[in-house]
Specification:
GO terms for molecular function: glycosyltransferase activity. The protein contains 13 helices and 13 strands. The chain is α/β, with parallel strands linked by helices. The protein has two domains: about 180 residues, Glycogen Phosphorylase B (Rossmann fold, 3-Layer(aba) Sandwich), CATH 3.40.50.2000; about 160 residues, Rossmann fold. The strands form two sheets. Strands 3-2-1-4-5-6-7 form a seven-stranded parallel beta sheet. Strands 10-9-8-11-12-13 form a six-stranded parallel beta sheet, sandwiched between helices. The chain is globular, with a radius of gyration of 21 Å. It starts with a strand and ends with a helix.
């Protein structure tokens, strides 16, 4: 019987956690002995497969070094495992023939403004991660990506000559509670945690233009209301006199994300860079219009199904929002394009089979 190690050690939140939860619910691999590595505190019981117990201290920065360089390679050697499906942050330096799930768009980022906006620690960590991925790229037999744009960029920047499999991440919509969560009919919702590339800094200027033009809408965020990022943003909003137009709900459960999207007028998604963008697909499934950034990465996922704006130009963003609110509903006219996007997304059963097949 084939043996496969699947590393979900870093899948603690966001898209990684979504993939982990659904993978465990849908995977079927009776002919493969799978050894799973989960994040700390993740609880899943097996009858046929094995969980690798990782010491808690390996969650620390110095522990991660030991985890990637020694702990996992030694475990594979002792248990006769030669195949690895790696959802981790970096490539295992001492394991060959890995299948690596790549969803880290910073590696293909060419926007110097985003890099320069990071503090030293954030920039150093990201640069180190990029260097490690580049240094050990030859350890990958196969790379899994979520869009054609990321596939092309990965090949170009890393000179990768192995197999690249494009596998859009499935999205399941369920357990919508029907609550509005304080979202009114003209709320534009931005579903995202804070990160430098998410472009939150442009929102105060967009809100100011919308208020000057008396546009009847509000912008709703989901960043932590106790974070330094929201405090800084709210100070700027207050200084421009538009704090009444922008609020944050704080981080949401997956069920609440669906309810908030369903109650909103549209998804507003001004991110400068995405490897995929699960909220874009969630909004389409829920029949909600999407206003988002005109970038190659997002276009590769959304095609002609959404309304685009220049993410660096607050005037253009405000103009597109104004046209949309005033009834120039480009998104509704693109329903056939939405159907084309959704038709290309696999089910979770298909997705898990593809990933396991690509790894053994």
């Amino acid at each position: 019987m084939n043996k496969l190690l699947i590393n979900f050690f870093s899948a603690k939140s966001g898209g990684g956690k979504v993939i982990l939860d659904n993978f465990m619910e849908h995977f079927d691999a009776d002919d493969v002995e799978i050894h799973f590595i989960f994040p700390s505190e993740y609880d899943f019981k097996f009858e046929k497969h094995l969980e690798v117990k990782v010491p808690k201290w390996m969650n620390k920065p110095y522990g991660l070094f030991w985890f990637y360089f020694f702990f996992v390679p030694n475990y594979c050697r002792k248990n006769g495992i030669s195949k690895v499906l790696n959802f981790g942050d970096v490539i295992f330096p001492r394991l060959k023939s890995q299948t690596y799930f790549f969803d880290w768009a910073y590696l293909v980022l060419d926007d110097s403004n985003i890099w320069s906006s990071m503090d030293f620690k954030s920039r150093f960590i990201r640069m180190l991660k990029a260097a490690l991925i580049k240094a050990f790229k030859s350890n990958n037999k196969t790379v899994i990506v979520q869009s054609e744009a990321i596939s092309s960029s990965y090949k170009k920047i890393l000179g990768f000559e192995g197999e690249i499999v494009v596998a859009p991440t499935p999205v399941s919509i369920n357990n919508i509670d029907g609550m509005s969560h304080g979202i009114d009919k003209n709320s534009l919702v931005y579903i995202s945690n804070y990160a430098p590339h998410k472009n939150f800094e442009i929102i105060p200027r967009v809100a100011s233009i919308l208020k000057q033009n008396k546009v009847d809408c509000s912008i709703v965020l989901t960043i932590d209301e106790n974070s330094i990022h929201w405090r800084n943003l709210s100070c700027e909003l207050s200084g421009l006199g538009v704090l009444d137009m922008v609020k944050t709900l704080g981080p949401l459960s997956q069920e609440d994300v669906f309810s908030v999207l369903k109650s909103s007028r549209a998804l507003f998604f001004p991110s400068k860079l995405e490897s995929y963008g699960i909220p874009l697909i969630e909004a389409m499934i829920l029949g909600k219009p999407v206003l988002t950034s005109d970038t190659p990465f997002i276009k590769s996922v959304c095609g002609d199904a959404v309304l685009y704006f220049d993410p660096k130009c607050p005037e253009d963003i405000a103009t597109k929002i104004t046209d949309f609110i005033d009834g120039v509903d480009y998104c509704r006219m693109r329903q056939s394009e939405v159907s084309k996007v959704l038709e290309n997304i696999p089910s979770w059963d298909q997705y898990t089979r593809l990933l396991i097949k690509s790894s053994i």
